Structures are given as C-alpha cells and as structure tokens.
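Problem: given the chain below (107 residues), write out its structure.
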Amino acid sequence: MGPTASVRNATPRARGATRLRIRVAPGASRSAVVGRLGDVWKVRVRSAPERGRANAEVTRVLADALGLAPRDVRVVAGQASRDKVVEVDGISLEDAERRLASREDRA
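Solution.
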C-alpha cells in the first residue's frame, strides 16, 4: 500500500463531517440543548468557561444528544467565545438537526 492509499482513506472522514453553529451559555444550573436561536443551536453547560472545561462539556452534551461518541464531536472554531462551530462525524446535517430538535429542553 503506497502513500496515495493512506491519503484516500483519511479523506472521507473530513468530507463527511457536519458543522453546526452553537451558542453556549456557561454556568447554567444544568447542561442541556436549549433549542434554536435563529440559525444556531443554544446549549447550556454547568461548567465555567475556564481552561476548556465548557468546551469539553459542550462536546459531551452534543454527543449525548446526537447519540454519538464524544470523540466524534469537536469544537473547530470559537474556542474562547460563546459562539462556536462544532464539527460532527458520522451524521448528516438533517439527522443532526432532527436529533437536536427532539432533545430540546422545554423546561
């Protein structure tokens, strides 16, 4: 197997990733997907925005809501901001939107 084969094997994962725009509310009483806020998903997390704790919790909350492993969810933009872009492997945008909508916190 030459170098071309290993490059081909790596590209489907990058191409198949879905990106979601997220607005994070850190320091909440409990963590949950709150719902849509315009064209972004609002997510509450208990963790404070210190040393990446809130980002780590965002990935766990989204992974749980989407039915994915935490390793399949990562913050790719906005690490130090409330507004983030999260990349998700193994799910289409349509499925992600549907699953998040079904997990909205209506309380």
